[in-house]
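Standup notes
- DV: blocked on the single-chain target, sequence here:
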Amino acid sequence: MGEPAPQRVKVYRLNEEGLWDDKGTGHVSVELLEGNTSVGLVVMGEGESPRPLLIHRITRDTTYQRQGDDTIITWTDPEIGTDIALSFQEVRGCSYIWEQVLHVQESSGSSPRIRPISGPPQSLDHVRSLGMSSAMDDFDTAGRYEEMVSGLGPHMEPGSSGSVELPEPEMASLREIARALTEVSLFQRERLAQQLAQRQGYLTRLLSVFRMCEDLEDEESLATLFTIFKHIVLLNDTGLFDLLFDEAHVMDLVGALEYEPDIKPEQRPKHREFLREQAVFKEVVPISDPKIRSKIHQTYRMGYLKDVVLPRLLDDATFATLSSLMLFNNIEVLMALYQDPDFFPTMFARLKAAAPGSSEWADLVAFLQELCGLTKHLQAQQRNSLLLRLVGLGLFEVMSAIMQRGGPEVKLKATDILLSDVQHDPSQLRAFLLTEQGNELFALLIKALLDSSDSGVQEQVLEMLKMLLDPETLEGSAEKDKFVELFYDQHISQLLAALVQAGDAPYSLGAPAPNTVGLVVDLLCYCTVSHSYRIKYYILRNNVVEKVLKLLRRKERWLVVAAIRFLRAAVQMKDEFYNRYLVKNHLLGPVVAAFLANGSRYNLLNSACLELFDFIRKENLKGLLAELVEQHWSQLEGIKYCEVFKQMHARYEQNQDRVASGNGGGGHSQQDSEAARAAHDAEMLARQRAAAAAEQRRRRGEAEVDADEESYFETAGGDSADEDEALPAGGTVVLQGGDSPGGGGLPGLLAPLVDYGDDEEEEGDTLPLRAGTPKRGSAGERPGSPPLEKRFKAGGTTGGGSGSGGGGGGVWPPPGSAGGRGSPPLR
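- DV (later): unblocked, structure below
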């Protein structure tokens, strides 16, 4: 019978992502390598000019396996450190190559029975020079597959899978066990883990060998055992983890992992000593179920192994598996405690009875913090039930006591607990803060925000206040009215007082820390963007913008940028209410001065100012644009390193050209200008009246806003003749506390807006409201926010929305065009 032809195969290589890369199709044969001294597998590609796709030396230590209906041979190549797979076209061809590989492994250590059939033996160099695979089989098979089968050893059957069998756990076989675990391929990991878990007492005997080697101080065997147990962990099998972290095995496992070969004996960590003597389990509330306690211990040891013992050696998959097991254990413990009817009442009873500042009190708060932190991993319904139960047992009352009498460390835990509850449902804490006892907690939170002794507490309180003041989470108008009114009437004044002190006497004794000032400005920015008329009138009545801009004189550059960020938040609202206020008080001047004082330095302050100016230009905020050009162009025109100011001046000139063309040549420019001012004054007067009426009705308990009041900031203003008649000849209406100068009178217009209490004492700082400022342009142009029509419209035929060339559809690539990724085909 003639020699079988080279077998047709596909070559696959496992990449770093765990996927198989197709390296091509060719013919495999067993050839002599490197001067006829070794034998290997050679795969030559197909085509007119074949090239070698694979050259692999067959060794006795390499473990080969058959899979996929006996058509796939796989192994881990030690030279390239990855898995290789050959997928054969026929089962007979796979069996033929398989038997030759086994025969070479049996013959290693003695001269292989190789005999050239005709002519001299062909080396790999000769094969490459020919550009083709060998035409003959260099093995002594007499050309017959049956003779190869008869030459097999008694311990291996033809077509066997080549499964790994772990040697018995003895000191003499430690090296073989380590080699089997080190060289195991991905295909055999699960089977090897099953052997370790299911063989009777295998792990127990292996750990007893460790204790014996430690008693004998056999350093070489201990280093081998470290390798063995490290690779057992890296098998990443959950069933095996249950055995390894069992009470009977975990200490010996940690002990074996102390003997890392790269660490000197005197520098070895003492993990067992730490776990036995220093890692003390504090049971602040008695847990009656021993299974829960055992699960807690197991979770702690998993975390210790993951984070302390093997942090450098764990791969990503094992690290993720250990983290998931810890999370599942924690959830199981949490639900078991929730189902215990006595556990949580006992915990809160101890919290209320413990002396503030005692160690028991601190331990109970820490336990409650950890418990609330774990609730975020529960399902929404379970998390809601658990938090409602904690609130019902007095969670917020306990947090009030902690914020009032606790130290910085305990306060940090308390704010973390409150934040966990607010992140789930802000309405629970919001409803509590509206009560008399909750108002005390609200004041404590504001005090903690202004206390610079612990920046961690400040950051958490700021995040909490943002969630509580978020209008999207406010359920109804009644709750929104009450809570927002409580904040603006009783608490925001404390924040503004700290801001004033930071601007007037920044470095005096008792002045707020820079970090505190930054957090206050951040909260004001959030309120400016999120709230409507309340923050608007608060800013106007208390000159908030002017007080914030005093921070431009601070030496801390990031605080200067924070002040500009607040101004940017007001400008981005594109509300003429803010714009006229900024223009009338020339509040862009300090920003320009800070920008010029920064010079040519390219830093965050420079970028923030340029972005603000460019935003005004892009949005064409005409009043602010005219203020910048008319008041500060002489200072800005010399800046040439960017195009912002050049473009800004061009936009201003365009606006002026439109005004001139609208005047029809300028014959009635003076008359139109006066009419424009009168129209602005009338518009502002109408808005003030609407706001005052809405506020008075709200205080009487009527509906918050109707359709007209809801849109009074967006409307174009009043056009009634009565308002025009009420205007004085100059066109300016000054809205002070008394009657209006037009004779119609608005007695007490500002007083009923918001009850600010002590505003009369700060009359020197209070800016009188003026209904509008003189407008540049004709009466036909009204400033305001961009029209509502500037929205995305549903286009009928926009930019190739239809047709075959739009790219919306596509065709899947033909099979095999994706680079051959995926599992090796079985056929």
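- Follow-up: The first helix runs from residue 91 to 107.
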